[in-house]
Design brief:
The complex is a heterodimer of chains A (84) and B (155). Chain A has one domain: Roll (Ubiquitin-like (UB roll)). In chain A, 26% of the residues lie in helices and 25% in strands. In chain A, a hairpin with a 2-residue loop joins strand 3 (55-58) and strand 4. Chain A is built from three helices and five strands. In chain A, strands 2-1-5-3-4 form a five-stranded mixed sheet. With 84 residues, chain A is an alpha+beta fold. Chain B is α+β, with helices and mostly antiparallel strands. Chain B has one domain (6-136): Alpha-Beta Complex (Aldehyde Oxidoreductase, domain 3). Chain B has helices at residues 16-24, 58-73, 104-121, 143-150; strands at 6-10, 32-39, 47-54, 76-84, 86-88, 93-101, 124-130, 135-138. In chain B, strands 1-4-6-2 form a four-stranded mixed sheet, sandwiched between helices. The longest helix of chain B has 18 residues, at 104-121. Chain B starts with 5 loop residues before the first strand and ends in a 5-residue tail after the last helix. In chain B, 34% of the residues are buried. Classes of the chains: A alpha+beta (84), B alpha+beta (155). At the A-B interface, loops of A face strand 3, helix 2, helix 3 and strand 7 of B. Chain A: InterPro entries: Beta-grasp_dom_sf, Mopterin_synth/thiamin_S_b, ThiS/MoaD-like. Chain A: This is Molybdopterin synthase sulfur carrier subunit. Chain A: Pfam families: ThiS. Chain A: It comes from Aminobacter ciceronei. Chain B: It holds the Pfam family MoaE.
Chain lengths: 84, 155
């Protein structure tokens, strides 16, 4: 099982802060994950309609969309950051 | 002597003078301390508060990674970075960066670098709450912040 965590407007549009999922074997990269999530319903479609803007962290480190997911325990999806 | 950065993610306020005293305490070779404090603006009277959401765990980890990179680039005697989360009203503090070094240039440059990287890489998001009672929108990331971070990239 992989823990998915959502922040800011990604969280609001999906309608939950986190979930545990069993990722299908064909989901190998971050890009695959975004495409698979997008197909899970309207709320995911709305949150991920522009997947290229979504930032992703695996095990609490930034990764790009080509990164292999491997055995990630925790994957977070969020908009570009606006701290500071 | 290896420097361990001080990184705190907290809901409460911080005391800038106390942090300056702490970073230089017992270090007689510190000749320069630079601080940057980021405050919440009122956006011409329209903003009641900012709500800062963060990714617990990663926020500390990412700011520590940024601080380690600053330590590798400049001869620093200390780094402190404090970022608040939760509801913050106009005039209140959001973020503090303190750098200490023998000479001023390293402390100035490192503080500038830390803020540029922190804005584009630390997992925090701001939502506006407006004076008229409505929930405003999520603050958009600025391309200028990415450009500010990119200018530190090593060629």
């Amino acid at each position: 099982m992989t823990k998915l965590i959502y922040f800011a407007w990604v969280r609001e549009r999906i309608g939950k802060a986190e979930e545990e999922v069993e990722l299908p074997a064909e989901v190998r990269t971050v890009r695959d994950l975004l495409m698979w999530l997008k197909s899970r319903g309207e709320e995911f479609e709305s949150a991920l309609q522009h997947p290229e803007v979504i930032r992703v962290a695996i095990n609490q480190e930034h990764v790009d969309h080509r990164e292999e997911i491997g055995g990630a325990r925790e994957i977070a999806l969020f908009p570009p950051m606006t701290g500071g | 002597m290896s420097v361990v950065p001080v990184v705190r993610i907290q809901a409460g306020d911080f005391d800038v003078a106390a942090e300056i005293a702490l970073i230089s305490a017992g270090k007689a070779d510190v000749g320069a301390v630079v601080t940057f404090t980021g405050l919440c603006r009122d956006e011409a009277g329209t903003l009641a508060a900012l709500e800062l959401e963060h990714y617990p765990g990663m926020a500390e980890a990412e700011i520590t990674r940024i601080a380690q990179e600053a330590l590798a680039r400049w001869p620093l005697a200390g780094i402190t970075a404090i970022h608040r989360f939760g509801k913050i009203r106009p005039g209140e503090n959001i973020v503090l960066v303190v750098t200490a070094s023998r000479h001023r240039q390293a402390a100035f440059d490192a503080a500038n670098f830390l803020m540029d990287y922190l804005k584009s890489r630390a997992p925090f998001w701001k939502k506006e709450h407006l004076v008229d009672g409505s929930e405003g929108s999520w603050v958009d990331a600025k391309d200028s912040d990415d450009a500010a971070a990119a200018r530190w990239a090593k060629s």
